[in-house]
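RECORD TYPE: inverse folding
INPUT: C-alpha cells
STRUCTURE:
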C-alpha cells in the first residue's frame, strides 16, 4: 500500500484558501481541530511590538466585542498613554472599564480614568462617539445620584431620551457593558422598547446555518491512496517455470526425433490453444486478484497499534450509521485507519482536519457501496475462446500421439500447468493499472467533496459574532427567567448569569481569544428583596435551542455557603505583583443550610484530550477566566451567605461608598494628561 501526494486530480485546480462573507474575517478561518477542540489561528486578538495605533485599536475593539473587556482596557489605556486620542477610543475605553464590573470594583482610580477620558471627549468635535459617551456619562451620574443623593428624575429622563436617539449598535453596546452598574429600574427603562428585539437579534446573521461551522477546522486536502496488488506466489512462479521447461523440452524432443508434418501440425495446434487459454486465464485472474487485493486492504490486523485516527474514525461511524452497520464496517474502518496513518504519519497537523474525509467515507459506507465491488459477469465471448483453446490443445496432443511423439505429448500436457502460473504472474501489472485507475476515480470524488466542504465553510462566523450571540442568549435567558417568575427588572436587587461547558460539548477559539463551547449550561440567578431564584438551562450555541430547564427558589437565610475550589498555580514578584496566574479549573458551589447544593458551576479552560500547546492553554485559560464572571458572582454570593437578608442593606451601603468615588462634575472638567498618565497599573 502506498500513498501519493500529487495534489489535485489531473485537470482540476482549486484555491484552497477559505474566503469570508458577511462579517466573517478571512484571517481567522485557518484552523486546526483536536477531535473536539478547534483552534483558529486568527490574528484578531494578537498584537506585536511596534503595531500602529490603528492595529491596536482594531484588536482592542475585537476583545471588547468578543467578551474580554480587561484586555481591551489594557490596550486602550496604552494608546492613551502614548497620546493616541480619539473620541471612539475614549468611548470604548469607558465601556471596557465598566464592562463585567460591578460597582464595588470601580475604584477611585478607575473613576479618575473614566473622568479623564470623558474630559478629552468633551474637548473634541462632536460626533456619534462623543454623543454615545455623553449618554454613558449621564447614566453614570444618575447612578451616582441614585445611590448617593437620591434619584434625579430629570437626569434620567434626559439620559433615556438621548439613549433612544443613539444608533441601535450603540444602544446594544451600552446596555451590554453597563448591565452590572445600572439599577434594575434603569435597565428596565433602557430596554423596555428593545426587549422584544432580543429574541430576533439572537437568531440574526443566519445563525442556525452558520454557527456550527465555528467548531469545524479547515479541511486538509485529500491524498491519493494506491492499493498495491497481491503479488504472485512462489507456487505461481514454480508452475510457470516448470510448465515452460516442459513445453520447451517437448519441442526439442520433436526436433531430435525428426519432425514430421503431423508433429508440426500438433505443435502448432498446441501453441495456438495455449495462447487462447493463456489470454482467457489472464482475463479471469485479473478480477480475482483485484478482489484479493481489496480484501487484503480491508483485513483487520490481529493486534492493531492504536493511532491518532482510531478514535475519530470509530466515533464518526458510531454516530452516523445504525448500530447494525458496526460489525459489517469493521474492515472498512480498519482500512481507513491504516490509510490515514500511513498517509499522514509524522505530519504536523491534527486529526480533525480530516474529519470531513472520514465523514465522506461514512456516508459512502452507509450507502452500501460494495467493497470490494461486485464482479462483472463473465463474457460469453471469452468463455467461447477458452473452449476453442482447450479443443485446439487437445487436438494437438492427439496429433502428436498419432505421429509417434509420445514423450513430447506428455511434456506438452505438463506444460498446461505452466499456463496458470504465467496467467497469475501476468495479471499483476494489469491489476496494478486497474487499481491505479480506481484510485484516481476515488481521489477525484474525494477532491470534489473537499471543494464542496471548503465552500460550506466559506461563511464561518467570526469570534465577535459568536460572542454577540452568546451575550444575546444570556440576556434572553435572563429576560425569560424574569417573565416566568412574573418579575420585572425593577424587582431585582441584582442578577448573575454564569455559563459552563456542557458535557461532551465541542469547543473552539481563536488565538488569544476566549473559549467558545458548542453547548453551554447556563445558570441564571435572580436576587430580589425577598429571596433568590435560580434557573439552569442547556443552551445550544449553534442553533440557539434551549432545553431541560430547572428552577429553584430559596430565601437568603437558607443559604449556607458560597464556595470556589480552585486548581492552579499563582506566583508573585518581589513587589507583590502577580507573575504567573495559571488556573486550570474552578468550581463554584452554592449550598443551602440543609446541605443541598442548588448550584454547581465549573470554570474549566482545559479539557482532557486537547492537543493545544501549553502556551495556547495558558492564554485560553486566562481569557476564559477574564470572561467567565466567576469573581463578581462570588462576591455577591459570599455576601448573601455571610450576611443573609441583611446583604441587601449592606449592598446599599457599598453602593453609597462607591458613589463617593464617582465625580459628579460635568465631563468637561479634569486634566486628561495628568489623569491618564497616572501610576495606575492596568490589570491584564
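DESIGNED SEQUENCE:
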Amino acid at each position: 500500500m502506498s500513498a501519493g501526494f500529487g495534489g489535485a486530480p489531473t485537470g482540476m485546480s482549486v484555491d484552497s484558501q477559505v474566503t469570508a462573507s458577511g462579517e466573517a474575517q478571512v484571517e481567522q478561518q485557518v484552523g486546526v481541530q483536536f477531535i473536539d477542540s478547534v483552534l483558529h489561528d486568527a490574528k484578531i486578538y494578537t498584537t506585536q511590538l511596534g503595531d500602529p495605533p490603528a492595529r491596536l485599536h482594531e484588536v482592542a475593539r475585537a476583545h471588547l466585542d468578543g467578551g474580554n473587556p480587561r484586555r481591551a482596557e489594557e490596550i486602550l489605556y496604552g494608546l492613551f498613554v502614548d497620546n493616541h486620542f480619539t473620541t471612539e477610543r475614549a468611548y470604548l475605553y469607558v465601556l471596557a472599564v465598566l464592562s463585567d464590573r460591578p460597582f464595588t470594583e470601580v475604584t477611585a482610580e478607575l473613576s479618575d480614568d473614566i473622568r479623564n477620558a470623558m474630559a478629552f471627549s468633551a474637548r473634541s468635535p462632536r460626533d456619534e462617539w462623543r454623543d454615545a459617551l455623553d449618554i454613558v456619562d449621564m447614566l453614570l451620574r444618575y447612578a451616582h445620584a441614585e445611590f448617593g443623593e437620591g434619584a434625579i428624575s430629570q437626569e434620567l429622563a434626559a439620559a433615556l431620551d438621548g439613549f433612544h436617539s443613539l444608533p441601535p449598535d450603540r444602544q446594544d453596546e451600552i446596555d451590554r457593558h453597563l448591565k452590572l452598574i445600572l439599577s434594575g429600574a434603569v435597565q428596565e427603562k433602557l430596554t423596555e422598547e428593545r426587549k422584544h428585539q432580543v429574541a430576533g437579534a439572537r437568531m440574526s446573521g443566519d445563525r442556525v446555518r452558520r454557527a456550527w461551522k465555528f467548531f469545524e477546522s479547515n479541511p486538509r486536502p485529500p491524498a491519493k491512496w494506491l492499493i498495491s496488488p497481491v503479488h504472485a506466489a512462489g507456487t505461481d512462479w514454480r508452475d510457470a517455470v516448470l510448465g515452460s521447461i516442459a513445453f520447451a523440452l517437448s519441442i526439442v524432443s520433436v526436433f531430435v526425433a525428426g519432425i514430421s508434418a503431423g508433429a508440426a501440425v500438433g505443435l502448432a495446434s498446441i501453441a495456438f490453444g495455449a495462447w487462447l487459454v493463456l489470454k482467457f486465464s489472464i482475463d479471469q485472474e485479473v478480477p480475482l486478484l483485484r478482489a484479493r487485493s481489496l480484501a487484503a486492504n480491508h483485513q483487520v490486523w490481529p493486534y492493531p497499534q492504536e493511532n491518532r485516527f482510531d478514535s475519530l474514525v470509530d466515533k464518526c461511524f458510531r454516530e452516523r450509521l445504525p448500530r447494525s452497520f458496526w460489525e459489517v464496517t469493521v474492515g472498512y474502518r480498519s482500512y481507513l485507519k491504516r490509510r490515514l496513518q500511513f498517509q499522514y504519519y509524522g505530519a504536523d497537523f491534527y486529526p480533525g482536519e480530516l474529519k470531513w474525509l472520514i465523514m465522506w467515507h461514512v456516508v459512502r459506507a452507509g450507502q452500501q457501496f460494495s467493497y470490494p465491488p461486485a464482479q462483472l459477469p463473465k463474457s460469453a465471448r471469452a468463455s467461447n475462446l477458452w473452449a476453442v483453446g482447450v479443443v485446439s490443445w487437445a487436438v494437438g496432443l492427439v496429433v502428436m500421439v498419432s505421429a509417434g511423439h509420445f514423450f513430447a505429448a506428455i511434456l506438452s500436457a505438463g506444460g498446461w500447468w505452466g499456463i496458470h502460473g504465467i496467467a497469475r504472474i501476468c495479471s499483476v501489472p494489469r491489476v496494478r493499472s486497474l487499481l491505479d485507475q480506481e484510485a484516481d476515480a476515488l481521489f477525484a470524488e474525494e477532491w470534489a467533496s473537499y471543494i464542496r466542504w471548503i465552500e460550506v465553510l466559506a461563511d464561518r462566523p467570526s469570534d465577535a459574532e459568536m460572542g454577540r450571540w452568546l451575550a444575546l442568549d444570556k440576556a434572553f435567558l435572563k429576560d425569560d427567567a424574569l417573565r416566568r417568575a412574573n418579575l420585572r427588572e425593577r424587582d431585582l436587587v441584582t442578577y448573575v448569569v454564569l455559563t459552563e461547558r456542557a458535557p461532551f460539548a465541542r469547543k473552539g477559539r481563536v488565538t488569544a481569544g476566549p473559549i467558545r463551547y458548542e453547548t453551554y449550561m447556563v445558570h441564571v440567578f435572580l436576587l430580589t428583596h425577598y429571596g433568590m431564584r435560580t434557573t439552569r438551562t442547556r443552551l445550544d450555541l449553534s442553533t440557539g435551542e434551549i432545553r431541560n430547564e430547572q428552577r429553584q427558589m430559596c430565601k437568603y437565610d437558607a443559604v449556607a455557603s458560597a464556595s470556589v475550589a480552585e486548581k492552579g498555580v499563582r506566583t508573585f514578584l518581589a513587589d507583590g505583583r502577580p507573575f504567573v496566574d495559571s488556573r486550570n479549573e474552578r468550581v463554584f458551589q452554592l449550598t443551602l443550610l440543609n446541605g443541598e447544593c442548588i448550584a454547581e458551576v465549573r470554570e474549566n479552560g482545559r479539557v482532557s484530550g486537547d492537543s493545544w500547546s501549553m502556551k495556547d492553554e495558558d492564554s485560553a485559560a486566562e481569557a476564559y477566566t477574564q470572561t467567565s464572571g466567576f469573581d463578581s458572582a462570588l462576591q455577591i454570593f459570599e455576601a448573601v451567605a455571610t450576611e443573609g437578608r441583611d446583604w441587601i442593606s449592606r449592598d446599599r451601603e457599598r453602593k453609597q461608598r462607591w458613589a463617593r468615588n464617582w465625580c459628579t462634575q460635568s465631563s468637561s472638567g479634569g486634566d486628561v494628561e495628568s489623569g491618564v498618565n497616572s501610576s495606575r497599573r492596568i490589570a491584564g
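NOTES: The chain has two domains: 53-216+462-662, 234-457.
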